[in-house]
What we know:
single chain; 35 helices; 1083 residues; alpha+beta; 9-stranded antiparallel sheet
Amino acid sequence: MPTSIDTSSSPSDGGVPSTPRKDVPTPKASNTTPKKAGGSSTTPRPASASTNTQTKQPSSSRPTSSSQPMTSLKNKQEFKNQLVHDVFGRDNKGRVPMEKVAMLIWQFRDDPAVVHFMAQFVAKFSGSRQVFDGIEFYLPQIAHMIIHLEADWDEAILERFALVIAQQSQHFALQLTWILQGAIEDYQPETVEGRPNPGYNQLFYHRCITLHSNIERCVVYGSPRSIELQKMFENGDISRAEYDQMKLEDRLNNAQQITTHGANFRKMVLQRVKDVKLPALKTPTKAAAADAESSMTTVVSSSTDNKTGKQISKYGGYLLYKRRFRTACYKRKAWKTRYFEIEERMLYCYNHRPSIGGRLVRAMPLEGAIVQQKEKGKYPYMFEAQNHHFEFVMRAKNENEMQLWMKLLRGESEANALIPHIISDDEVDNNGGEEKKEDKGSPVKGGTSVYKLTPSQEARYEFFKNERDFVASVCDVAEVLRFHEPKERKALAPGLASAVKLPPCAYVPLCKSTDVWRRVDSVIANDTRVFNTNERCPMIYYFVAKRGEKIGTTLGPKNPNLDVAEYLHMQFQVPDTDPVGRLKAIGEDAEHEGHQEVHADSSKEDDEAKEEVKEEEKEEEKEDDDGIGSLAMEDPTDSGRGTVWTEDSKSTKSFLGSMNTKKGNEQLRKFMEENVVKLPLKLAMQINRFESRRKMSYLDRNASTTQMNTTPIIEKTIIENPILEHPNTNDDDSSVGDSVSLDGLSVVSVGGGSIILGDQVVVFQQADGIDKASLDRAKDVVSGGESWAEKTARMLRTAKSANNEEEDTSIYEIVSFMAKSNDDLRQEVFVMQMIHYFESVFAKSNIPIWLKTYRILSTSKSTGLIEVLTDATSIDGLKKSEKYPAAGGMRAYFEQAYGSPTSKSFLAAQRNFTRSLAGYSLVSYLLGLKDRHNGNIMIDTRGHVIHIDFGFAFGMAPGHEWSFERAPFKLTKDYIEVMGGTSSECFKEFQKLFVDGFKAARSNSLTALGLVEIMMYKSNYPCFTGTRYGGGVSLKRFEKRLMLDVPDSKVGKKALQLITSSIDSTGTKLYDIFQHHSNGLAV
């Protein structure tokens, strides 16, 4: 029988059209890009499209679909049972398997009580690096559920969870912000070019805007009591367990207060979307005209600010407006009467007042917007508001109304992220009154309540804003070059790259929160590379980065291995001497809703039990003090004892301890005891059932094991030897072993290549059996004669010599990435996530399959960053190289580069080729990767095959039904010859790896199917939408490729048949020939 995954993810469900989406012009990236759309097309969309998009919503929070894979309710229930057991059962052995947690939230999505419990449970243990890595890895699924699934819930459960995690890591907050930016562009009412957006969804759009603002507030505000609690812990006033618990409660309280603000507005939007049945007004009616004529700027609605008790008002009124836009010629639109509203630092434009059936036609973020009067305007009372993408030109009825609107717009533009713009009632004087012109740069005066940011809040705000601006600016250069002739781009790129503004604390965000921090110090503009295509101009940047620097006023040794979360915590979580405008901390208000909620079920017996646990922990810590020492005396930058992570602490050891005979595992009991919460009924029933009957899931029944395979996300460990470079000598005995250190701390390699430590250049080289002479021959063909280690060493020596700083003992290294514009990378992000998941599956099963998982970051609907693959080139580039053998194909190249077929280097390179080919053959088949021409397949100097560019996945192919690529995966004659032919031992190893990997993928198929199902729900990915791939089609095909209905005894034979049908396939050869004739790619 098929697996227990339902396809409740039809893209046509919940108001998303089932017809194929038309191509929508993508927004531009930029504050440096010339405005393509200076004006606006105000042509209204058809009423039917507007009504359907805004009012057609799912009837319940649980998605449904008319076309589902053939599954049984029994198997679905068994999958749920197994998930609960794997997370909370006694056999868990103290792990928090995030893939199972994500699946639990999805499977119990119709029960907010279970989702709320799971969110609290994960937040409790997010201090563990392993758990936090899992949270970040599954962030695309979490964000997708927050946007699309939680929109119909009464409580913002997952949103509050995201805010809690964002307070722990600003890097996590940035990643979520960029995901939200893409969703905002998906659902905004109109494109940047001024055209109606066919994907507009009012509910999702407002939700993303609100969450975007809340994330920023959360980051800026930080954890209110973090410094106070840290000092209490270091002074020994509280135990580590108490510190962790109080810190978590502080973050929960902060998230509760932030999500409460704007809740009334969210409910109002949801009610409007569901209840408004008035048709959209395409032409002004007499009533609408009269309403516009008599209307004045006034308060539309108001809510009470939780912190101050003041009224936060939403203002609205009619204005004349126009917007210029670029078409075949520069054209101006006529003035039109539109209804404007200001809310949450957004300016909304309706064709008429929403209460009489008006629809939203435009919207503009006001953060950082320039608001000014048109001094030399043709008409009186003209003013404008503009930012990176939008420009509004408006006309008021009189001077007083113009000044009032400018005051309101500037207030929203200048308001900090923490405190919303709060305007008292006497500030709005509809009759003009006493309001006069203000200085453009001054904050709102008079009756306005102004809150200043504290120094630490200001620092966090500047960092958060500057990092986003830095990433946007590097993508802007690619966007600017796109409009130049290809022959001009190479000459223009260095100048534009050198003009990119580098903030004082910037980094390349292609990393995890637990990766080593590297601050971007300068750009190497002359080495910037550009790639010319018809539709875009990707660029490769090279930056000099530093690590091991002093952090603020921190004393003690410098830590070169400090991770991103720890560095940002120490850099920006500085104590404020006068905390102004802060939110309430825990315990400050006994009436607070979140505080009541946590302790609602507390009893005297519970309090006594908690006190006993605390006393026991204190006694245990006193016993450990003699042998371990006090944390307060240790280096605050020590990553193992920092205040961000807790895995080395006593509290973590306690929940990872031995199991006993009580129900559930240790961390579940600890969570319930310390948080005084009850287990949801559905989870309690599942645990009871498993404790008594020990049921097994569908796949595990055949495996004769109790527990499903837990797949922690594994990062590949590469063995590297640090070697001191001696440019003027031929001394080969330069290995320094473990002696590479800074202030006594060993330096770990981050991205390979070289680093400068003091006056020495240190090269990190892999140890995989390939000798240096072979690598030198390979780099002549693959890398143009210069390896990545040599290239980075050259760049670093130049950068170091140009540095005039005295006594700079920081570690210098090179970071590089590709910046893209006019390209939606979100589908590629998901495909790479699935490849990474399968890599972890193979590693967990001890199968020596090799896959290269590189970082891809989508920063909007049309921009993103990609990690650069070093010491590698495409198969197309390899075969076009001047030093590539004239005859013999890739086999001849391997013998030319690595020596005779019996040499150690050749066998090592051949082994690398075979293991990587097996890995990519598996994921190409399982994930339905297409467009596998020689420009999208790379090879490195060590013989590994690497696939890139996943724009066609899950069966989506160029040409669709007429695609040449009918083979399960690409297995050419060239590849087989490198392995020694179909009768060689190497080919037999390839077959064994493929079969073993396929079986491992099947045994973990439920989680893989669940990840696809989540992202397919109301998806905008091309591989999940349209008549060809929407409606659950892609999920059915993925399930079919996993062969879940095939008995285990026949799986091996079926897998071997896939290999046979792929060998030198006619379709594969025809597609390579087609690409050769159409794009000039080598065959």
